[in-house]
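Module 6 notes. Inverse folding takes a fixed backbone as the condition and produces residue identities as the prediction. Think of it as a translation problem where the source language is geometry and the target language is the twenty amino acids. Below is one complete input and output pair. Work through it position by position during the lab.
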């Protein structure tokens, strides 16, 4: 039987899961194209910027990982154009690839809204390793300079870190940065004033829209860690070292991280497909693109709707589930079967809340918080990374 060729663009949570599933069918040849030679474990980035783990813990080498599969090629390049009629795609280095089936899995990037003046120029993002690394390195240097310049009377300026946006990633980063600051100052027994972490959000609660148990547990923990939680506060301008709120109040800062939202990866602007104002590709019920039954979008780049027609929040979990659905659909289509609609069955949520503490809701609605929740969160992360690291170790020597 003739083999079919599936091209997956993007080796993140969705792309990798799609390849794992597709590679079980020996009649399918796969090419993964990613502009980076690594899979970035963004869900672990709070540990990285707070110095709990090193860079290797948030990366997995894609060439090694892909070599561990038979019938999978890896191309390190940026996709720039797709011709749906010819079933070809172009890359930045002028390569042309053909496909029978195509999966867009290029994720998202930090959304810096234009209505917040100066935000893009003066705030850090953490949606890529270079931006997270920049923040981490500049932060450590500034921390050292502060200790170095302190005098016995502690006459130094405040050292504030502002996190803009109190969604899942903002809350996790604020909690871990505060835990880190506490650990750092206690460890060195530094006598002078430490770091203040501010978490600022325009909504009336942090984690707006999530289960009240998560909102309350996270809020309580953040306060215990000494985080200044300013919900109901809209940032209107970000200057070089100062934010301005709608009510005119200002706050000096040393560093600002913006986690206030995401928009689709820039590729979506080049695709000539129907999309939302933030570039998320509209998809049919089976996650294919209207008019192109052999082209699919999964994960953060897709505008995936729930049964009520509302967009599902972008998470690694949704990226993986949507990838599994599309892989199954392609395998079934190859056998001549019709596609089925995608239904997202949320398996729960776990939030890291600084140090060895977390909160979450497990399948079946079981609520956990504290050390146990931290352990569950770590176990979920290891369950994801251990098999991939094992595979990439095999691929490295192939
Ligand atoms: C700080 C933080 C914490 C988070 N915590 C959680 C959490 O606890 N739980 C959870 O479920 N989710 C969490 N998320 C969200 C989660 O990380 C994303 O939903 C997930 O990464 C989406 O997966 P994806 O496969 O769609 O895209 P990604 O994982 O972003 O992968 C996209 C890939 O596409 C590649 N790419 C992009 N454009 C091109 C192009 N033109 N050509 C070739 N390659 C391209 C990129 O290099 C990248 O490798 C968190 C996110 C952040 C930032």
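Target side of the pair, the amino acids:
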């Amino acid at each position: 039987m003739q083999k079919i060729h599936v091209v997956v663009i993007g080796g993140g949570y969705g792309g990798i899961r799609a390849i794992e599933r597709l590679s079980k069918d020996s009649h399918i040849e796969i090419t993964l194209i990613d502009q980076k030679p690594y899979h970035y474990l963004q869900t672990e980035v709070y540990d990285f910027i707070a110095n709990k783990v090193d860079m290797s813990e948030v990366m997995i080498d894609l060439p090694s990982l892909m070599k561990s599969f038979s019938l999978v090629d890896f191309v390190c390049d940026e996709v720039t154009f797709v011709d749906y009629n010819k079933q070809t795609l172009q890359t930045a280095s002028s390569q042309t690839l053909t496909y029978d089936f195509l999966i867009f899995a290029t994720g998202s990037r930090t959304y810096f809204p234009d209505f917040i003046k100066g935000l893009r120029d003066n705030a850090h993002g953490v949606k890529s390793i270079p931006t997270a690394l920049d923040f981490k390195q500049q932060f450590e240097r500034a921390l050292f300079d502060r200790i170095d310049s302190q005098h016995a009377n502690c006459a130094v300026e405040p050292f504030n870190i502002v996190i803009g946006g109190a969604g899942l990633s903002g809350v996790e980063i604020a909690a871990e940065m505060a835990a880190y600051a506490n650990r750092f100052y206690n460890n060195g027994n530094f006598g002078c004033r430490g770091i203040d972490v501010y978490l600022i959000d325009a909504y009336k609660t942090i984690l707006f829209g999530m289960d009240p148990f998560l909102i309350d547990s996270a809020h309580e923990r953040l306060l215990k860690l000494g985080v200044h939680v300013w919900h109901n506060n809209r940032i209107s301008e970000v200057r070089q070292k100062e934010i301005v709120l709608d009510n005119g109040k200002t706050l000096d800062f040393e560093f600002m991280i913006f986690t206030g939202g995401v928009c689709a990866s820039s590729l979506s602007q080049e695709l000539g497909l129907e999309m939302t104002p933030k570039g998320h590709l509209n998809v049919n019920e089976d996650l294919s693109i209207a008019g192109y039954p052999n082209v699919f979008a999964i994960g953060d780049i897709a505008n995936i709707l729930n049964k009520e027609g509302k967009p599902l929040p972008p998470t690694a979990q949704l990226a993986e589930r949507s990838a599994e659905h599309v892989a199954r659909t392609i395998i079934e289509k190859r056998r001549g079967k019709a596609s089925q609609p995608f239904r997202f069955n949320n398996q729960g949520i776990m939030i890291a809340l600084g140090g060895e503490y977390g909160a979450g809701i497990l399948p079946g609605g079981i609520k956990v918080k504290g050390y146990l929740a931290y352990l569950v969160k770590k176990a979920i992360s290891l369950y994801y990374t251990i098999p991939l690291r094992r595979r990439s170790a095999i691929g490295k020597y192939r």
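Reference fact for the lab report: Residues 9-15, 33-36, 40, 42-43, 45, 78-79, 105-107, 126-127, 168-169, 172, 265, 267, 299-300, 314-317, 319 surround flavin-adenine dinucleotide (CB under 6 Å).
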